């Protein structure tokens, strides 16, 4: 179900004269959440910026066909998730031969990232998260950092609630093992 | 007519006539026995079970008993237990590492990014041409690239007073250490004769797109193989970055 504010924005988006203004409002409202969702997946700020921009350009192109049977935010998250995963897969295919190298590269990115403000533990947490498979990492990020409900995660990922719970459980176990706890 | 021996009904009838027996086969029951039979059986069953549970703590003939109302709330308690278990997943980790995201973004990033996206979608809808927006992060790396270029130029002998030129740099014009006399074009032209990539020149000149990761890689001293030692270059780069901002660097050039 659409939030009332989103419903108004979508109506305005469908009118040529208010289309651009409505999209700007949608952008203002959701840009940060979409960016952070992507950033946690791709790690590097520049990459996150590119993927976020692509996501919103796709949102612009797809809003006319948005069926309104889910929340606007959920729909955008789904696009952002697909964009982030596609980006990571392309990066793997283009630059690296195996996951270990990508993992190492992303961990290195965090180490040298001028926009990473965390302490050693937070650095270690990110490195631990990078050891997870992509989709498990996605689930872990949504639950651990955003405390998102499994039902919403299910809508975004198209995975059953039970499978998501199991995935999160496994992810936490792996990360805890990295820290030597659990 | 001769009776058919295979007909069971006829055979029963013949037997009844012979013995004179009724359906009760001659047995009798006390008066009113069947009137309250069901009630008596049920009270016997229920009464006995209640008696066992209450008095002996036994259930259904087993030696084990359960507290009153145990099965009524069992499913609720199982669901609550599962929920609690789910809620506890990651709690220990969260206590140790927290769940604050430690990533940051450049100053005013979201405002600028918003403008970029709007410019792109407006261009898509034919309203406007996409605008090239220089982000602060790009400005930083451009300044860093300029600093790296200056170091590079030092190492080539642009700013040295040494009388002799290395043979492998014989074709590079040597200029005096005067910033005012060295134009960007001259430096670019000279550097083009060396192994400086187009991306470095793009970063230096601000023309074309270079990613932050690539910029970092390019301005790192290990990627600038020159005569100067890495330590010297790092010191010089640091000095230039600390003492000159981008505008000053451009003015110096």
Q: Note the run of SSEs of chain B as H and E.
A: HHHHHHHHHHH
- Rg over alpha carbons of chain B: 49 Å
- Give the overall form of chain A: globular
Most extensive interface, chain pair and sizes: A-B, 50 and 35 residues
Compute the number of structural domains of chain A: 2
Number of helices of chain A: 9
Secondary structure tally, helices of chain B: 11
- Mean pLDDT over the residues of chain B: 63
Query: Which bin fits the share of residues in helices of chain A?
Result: over 70%
Biggest β-sheet strands, sense, barrel of chain A: none
Strand content of chain A: under 5%
Q: Give the name of the CATH superfamily of the largest domain in chain A.
A: RNA polymerase sigma factor, region 2, helix turn helix motif
If you compute it from the alpha carbons, what radius of gyration of chain A comes out, rounded to the nearest whole angstrom? Answer: 18 Å
Q: What are the secondary-structure elements of chain A, in order, as H or E?
A: HHHHHHHHH
Mind describing the biggest β-sheet of chain B? Answer: none
Strand content of chain B: under 5%
Structural class of chain A: mainly alpha
Low-pLDDT regions of chain B: 51-58, 157-180, 220-231
How is this structure best described in words?
The complex is a heterodimer of chains A (182) and B (253). Chain A has 182 residues and is mainly α. Chain A has helices at 4-13, 16-42, 45-62, 72-95, 99-112, 120-129, 134-145, 150-157, 161-179. The N and C termini of chain A lie far apart (39 Å). Chain B is mainly alpha-helical and 253 residues long. Chain B has a domain at 136-252. Chain B has eleven helices and no strands. Chain B has helices spanning 8-19, 37-56, 74-88, 91-97, 109-124, 136-156, 184-192, 198-205, 212-219, 230-243, 246-252. In chain B, α6 (136-156) packs parallel to α9. Chain A binds chain B through residues 19-20, 23-24, 27-28, 31-32, 35-36, 39-40, 44-47, 49, 52-53, 56-57, 60-61, 109, 112-113, 115-119, 121-126, 143-145, 147, 165, 168-169, 172, 175-176, 179, 181-182, and chain B through 86, 89-90, 92-94, 96-106, 109-110, 113-114, 116-118, 120-122, 124-125, 127, 137, 211-213, 216.
């Amino acid at each position: 179900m659409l939030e009332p504010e989103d419903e108004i924005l979508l109506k305005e988006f469908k009118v040529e004269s208010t289309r651009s203004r409505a999209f700007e409002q949608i952008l203002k409202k959701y840009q940060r959440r979409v960016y952070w969702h992507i950033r946690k997946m791709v790690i590097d700020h520049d990459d996150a910026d590119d993927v976020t921009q692509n996501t919103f350009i796709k949102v612009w192109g797809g809003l006319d066909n948005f069926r309104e049977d889910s929340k606007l935010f959920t729909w955008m998250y789904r696009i952002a998730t697909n964009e982030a995963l596609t980006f990571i897969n392309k990066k793997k295919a283009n630059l690296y031969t195996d996951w270990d190298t990508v993992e190492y590269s992303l961990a290195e990115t965090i180490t040298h990232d001028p926009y990473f403000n965390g302490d050693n533990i937070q650095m270690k947490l990110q490195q631990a998260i990078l050891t997870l498979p992509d989709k498990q990492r996605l689930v872990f990020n949504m639950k651990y950092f955003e405390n998102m409900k499994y039902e919403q995660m299910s809508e975004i990922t198209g995975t059953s609630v039970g499978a998501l719970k199991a995935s999160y459980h496994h992810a936490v176990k792996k990360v805890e093992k990295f820290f030597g706890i659990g | 007519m001769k009776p058919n021996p295979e007909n069971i009904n006829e055979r029963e009838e013949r037997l009844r006539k012979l013995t004179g027996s009724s359906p009760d086969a001659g047995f009798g029951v006390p008066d009113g026995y069947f009137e309250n039979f069901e009630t008596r059986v049920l009270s016997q069953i229920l009464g006995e079970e209640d008696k066992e549970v209450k008095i002996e703590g036994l259930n259904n003939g087993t030696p084990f008993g359960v507290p009153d109302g145990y099965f009524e709330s069992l499913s609720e308690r199982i669901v609550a237990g599962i929920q609690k278990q789910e809620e506890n997943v990651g709690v220990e980790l969260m206590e140790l590492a927290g769940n604050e995201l430690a990533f940051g973004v450049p100053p005013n990033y979201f405002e600028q990014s918003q403008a970029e996206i709007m410019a792109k979608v407006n261009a898509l809808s034919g309203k406007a041409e996409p605008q090239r927006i220089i982000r602060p992060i790009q400005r930083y790396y451009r300044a860093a690239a300029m600093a790296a270029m200056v170091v590079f130029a030092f190492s080539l002998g642009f700013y040295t007073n040494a009388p002799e030129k290395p043979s492998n740099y014989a074709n590079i014009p040597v200029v005096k250490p005067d910033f005012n006399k060295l134009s960007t074009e001259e430096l670019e032209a000279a550097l083009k004769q060396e192994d400086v990539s187009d991306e470095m020149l793009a970063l230096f000149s601000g023309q074309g797109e270079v990613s932050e990761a690539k910029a970092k890689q390019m301005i790192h001293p290990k990627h600038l193989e020159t005569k100067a030692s890495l330590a010297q270059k790092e010191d010089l780069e640091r000095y230039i970055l600390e003492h000159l901002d981008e505008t000053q660097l451009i003015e110096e050039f």
